[in-house]
Amino acid sequence: MKVLNIDLGENSYPIYIEMGAIDKANLLIKEHLDCKRLFIITDTNVAKLYLGELKSGLEHEGYSVNYTIVEAGEKSKDILTLPKIYKELVNSNISRSDAIIALGGGVVGDLAGFVASTYLRGIKFVQIPTSLLAQVDSSVGGKVAVDLPQGKNLVGSFYHPKLVIIDPQVLRSLDERAFNDGMGEVIKYAFIRDYELYSQLLNFQDKDVLRSNLEDIIYTCCNIKRMVVENDEKDLGERMILNFGHTLGHAIETVGGYGELTHGEAVSIGMYQVSKISEKLGLTKEGTSSQIVELLKKYDLPYNMPEVDYDEVLKVMGIDKKNLNSNLNVILLSEVGDCFIHKTNIGFFEQLISD
Ligand SMILES: NC(=O)c1ccc[n+]([C@@H]2O[C@H](COP(=O)([O-])OP(=O)(O)OC[C@H]3O[C@@H](n4cnc5c(N)ncnc54)[C@H](O)[C@@H]3O)[C@@H](O)[C@H]2O)c1
To answer: For 198-236, how does the pLDDT look when each residue is reduced to its tens digit (9 = 90+)?
Structure first.
């Protein structure tokens, strides 16, 4: 089993990565958590596949286990989902010494993490991420949140799990589009920090070969996120580099209407379009955007701008909560495998229109 330790002083925690790890989750949890009761939060899709075995495995170890199942999808990451869950926790007699388990994709992870950070002023929690995006990104780094009608992730905190258990085998039940969505983030890590990962991904013969290497790939991605988060736990500087392609990606997602493009697809377009501009401005090594296209194409991810109103896209970027005081921090590649933070303003993206 591969193990990564996130070193954040008293908030440190291990990440276990192995094919079939979910079958050992009960033993790993037993090793780390000294409590009587566990409360699993999962969604309708994941519950059908993995809840039963996890629950009986934990009961076998002597835990009393209760659970709640939210509707699959972003809609459940809503502030209005919280009262029902808090009530169920109280009814299940979950105390400060007990723990919550997040079993699912990024929606369940963010929601369960937020619940854990607030219930009884904070109780322990465990992440068992089941989507590729959650395994390489959202389960690591301690950002937990719920959405408000005014926008995504507007209420949240930094709250770390006690351990993360990653089983790449569960990704077999993910549909193709959801898997590709996560690949957008995997590819992002290669572009910003790891030329070797870039060549590895480029040289895999096909998706079956990729799948047989997932343990290593996920480890590499989590390790990059580990280094970045350890240097900048509260997202005040370096952690920004994880947003490569995201400012434009979010704006395209918003203008295109959430749901039309997946997050990974929108970020893929963002990564390419931003690099095309920066290459033109001489900030990125010539040929980089062609290398980006080559990899995105290989994993069936888009790179051309969709048919959207460009003025609307610029407007959304202008009011993005990260772009205060009209200054804009854009993450650019100097070349594949290396990135930097470029301080600019919205004028940078006006190049999109002139193209
Ligand atoms: N906290 C962070 O740092 C961070 C980072 C990136 C994204 N996020 C958040 O993550 C969320 C998106 O996560 P997501 O893409 O995992 O979405 P998701 O949780 O909605 O999962 C996508 C779909 O896949 C299904 N699913 C999950 N695992 C499955 C499996 N093994 N087999 C079959 N179906 C499965 C889910 O039921 C859902 O329908 C967003 O809310 C985003 O804001 C958080």
So the answer is: 999 999 998 899 999 999 999 999 999 999 999 999 999
137 lines ligand 1 (CB under 6 A): yes
- Decide whether any atom of ligand 1 lies within 6 Å of the 129 Cβ: no
Closest atom of ligand 1 to 140 CA is 3
Is the Cβ atom of 22 under 6 angstroms away from ligand 1? Answer: no
Q: Is the Cβ atom of 117 under 6 angstroms away from ligand 1? A: no
Q: Is the dihedral of CA 278, 281, 286, 290 positive or negative?
A: positive
Provide the whole-model pTM: 0.95
**Pocket flag, ligand 1, residue 173 (CB < 6 Å):** yes
Pairwise CA distance, residues 129 & 138, whole Å: 8
Q: Whose CA is nearest to atom 33 of ligand 1?
A: 174
- pLDDT, tens digit, for every residue of 163-203? 999 999 999 999 999 999 999 999 999 999 999 999 999 99
Tens-place pLDDT, residues 259-290? 688 889 999 999 999 999 999 999 999 999 99
| Residue owning the nearest CA to atom 2 of ligand 1 | 138
Question: Pairing state of beta strands 151-158 and 143-148?
Answer: antiparallel
Strands 124-129 and 151-158: unpaired
